[in-house]
């Protein structure tokens, strides 16, 4: 029987960083019984690099790696490398692959293949991959996406630590996203256990109403996203008031504009929720303004936020 290679990247000759060394992606292998594959006990980050004015620029690298370190601490994982060492490793991987723009995935996992839940005393490994990446939803900011409010609720901190970007947390997002896709929508929106708007499957959510921006606060058990913080700072820099508070579901339907944001999603307009058009059913002007500002920042065309860029040299 001919073995089928199902990897999306096997023909690209990509290189990854694994426990301190650059190696071929095809050589970075772990046992099929690896603990983190069985139980979702990995910690990860999502980072983007862009083709910018002065070369390839990694966006908010130190902020992402800082969250990576915090997530490990929450799960009692002792980091084998310092934050600076991991930042240097990210730059090394992007450079080794010669990518002008890419998505970067740091991942720490338990490499033990011994059956059993306990992680105490088990060794961990860290890999960092950088892969070609384009528009996450495939629509850009010109069209927008349709969302469904999920029947599943967002996990909360009494169940799992939502502040950590842990693999197992995303089973919650996957089942909600599957429900939305099966119903003909592009993405899901989850409510918190208390019924307030929380977030998308892998994105934070913003509502535009009366020239102001509203976004759920931490009490909705959201992941505090780096792109969420970016969107808030962009909005404030152009004079738009941002209100972080508990947000009711019906506020989505009556909003002038809605958009999702995340490392992969960037700034993505939402034009319909549960069959109800948002505004006139097209991406709105404030969403477009923030999306355009975001693009200028990540490509090095805005001096105010140049400190957010780490250039690959």
* Cα shape: globular
SSE class: alpha+beta
Question: What is the CA-based Rg, rounded?
Answer: 20 Å
Write out the CATH superfamily name of the largest domain: D-amino Acid Aminotransferase, subunit A, domain 2
pLDDT < 50 stretches: none
Quickly give the CATH architecture of the largest domain. Alpha-Beta Barrel
What is this entry, summarized?
It contains eight helices and 17 strands. It has 313 residues and is of the alpha+beta class.
Describe, in plain words, how this protein is organized in 3D.
- The model has no long low-confidence stretch (mean pLDDT 94).
- It is globular, with a radius of gyration of 20 Å.
- The protein is an alpha+beta fold.
- It has helices spanning 35-39, 61-74, 83-97, 140-143, 170-182, 226-237, 250-253, 285-298; strands at 15-18, 21-24, 43-44, 47-52, 55-59, 102-110, 124-131, 145-153, 187-191, 197-200, 204-209, 212-215, 242-244, 257-262, 266-273, 276-277, 309-311.
- 26% of the residues lie in helices and 28% in strands.
- The chain has 8 helices and 17 strands.
- Helix 2 (61-74) crosses helix 3.
């Amino acid at each position: 029987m001919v073995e089928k290679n199902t990897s999306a990247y096997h023909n690209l000759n990509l290189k990854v960083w694994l426990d301190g060394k650059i190696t071929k992606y095809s050589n970075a292998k772990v046992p099929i019984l690896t603990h983190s594959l069985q139980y979702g006990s990995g910690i990860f980050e999502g980072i983007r690099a862009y083709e910018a004015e002065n070369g390839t620029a990694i966006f908010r690298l130190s902020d992402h790696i800082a969250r990576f370190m915090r997530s490990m601490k929450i799960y009692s994982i002792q980091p084998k490398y310092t934050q600076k060492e991991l930042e240097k490793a990210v730059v090394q991987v992007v450079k080794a692959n010669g990518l002008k723009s890419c998505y970067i995935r740091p991942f720490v996992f338990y490499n033990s293949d011994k059956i059993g839940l306990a992680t105490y005393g088990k060794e961990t490994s860290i890999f960092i991959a950088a892969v070609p990446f384009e528009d996450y939803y495939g629509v850009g900011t010109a069209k927008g996406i349709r969302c469904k409010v999920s029947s599943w609720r967002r996990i909360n901190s009494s169940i799992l630590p939502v502040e950590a970007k842990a693999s197992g947390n995303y089973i919650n997002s996957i089942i909600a996203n599957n429900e939305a896709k099966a119903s003909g929508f592009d993405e899901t929106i989850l409510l918190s256990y208390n019924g307030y708007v929380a977030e998308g499957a892998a994105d934070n959510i913003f509502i535009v109403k009366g020239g102001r921006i509203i976004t759920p606060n931490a009490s909705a058990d959201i992941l505090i996203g780096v792109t969420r913080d970016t969107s808030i700072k962009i909005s404030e820099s152009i004079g738009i008031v941002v209100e972080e508070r508990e947000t009711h579901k019906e506020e989505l339907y009556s909003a002038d504009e809605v958009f999702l944001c995340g490392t992969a999603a960037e700034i993505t307009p939402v034009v319909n929720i549960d069959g109800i058009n948002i505004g006139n059913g097209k991406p709105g002007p404030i969403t477009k303004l923030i999306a355009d500002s975001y693009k200028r920042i990540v490509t090095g065309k805005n001096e105010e936020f140049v400190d957010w860029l780490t250039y690959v040299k």
